[in-house]
Amino acid sequence: MGLKITEKEEFELKKLDTGSFVHAVVDEFLKTVNIDEVTDEEIDRIVDEIITNEISQYIKFSMSAKFRIMVQRVKKFIGLSIKIYCTGT
User: Is residue 8 within 8 Å of residue 62, measured between CB atoms?
Assistant: First the structure.
């Protein structure tokens, strides 16, 4: 019989999915806060919370190191984009 070892399925986020994901996070952020009163630190914290919640809803698979790095990059991108939007620059 032997061991029936199977590879874990890995979650992937394709380019089209990434755009939808970014829009969903930004939309949720704008529904959550008053952009005139939010600080940079609050932006980072809230974006992190939203992304963590969004990902946990969809991931039922293992996250590879590559995926975790991509998530960190997306967090930085969204946080920076929101900061620019909030300051009007």
Answer: yes
Closest CA to 86 of 34, 10, 48: 34
C-alpha span between 28 and 35 (Å, rounded)? 12
From 61, 56, 53, 54, select the one nearest 20 (Cα to Cα).
54
Q: Give the model confidence (pLDDT) of 35-76 as tens digits.
A: 888 999 999 999 999 998 888 776 655 567 887 888 889 899
| Cα–Cα distance for residue pair 53/23, rounded to 1 Å | 15
Q: For 15-29, what is each residue's pLDDT tens digit?
A: 557 778 888 899 999
Q: Is the pTM of this model over 0.85?
A: no
Q: At residue 76, what is the residue type? A: K
Phi, psi of 10, deg, nearest 5:
-120, 135
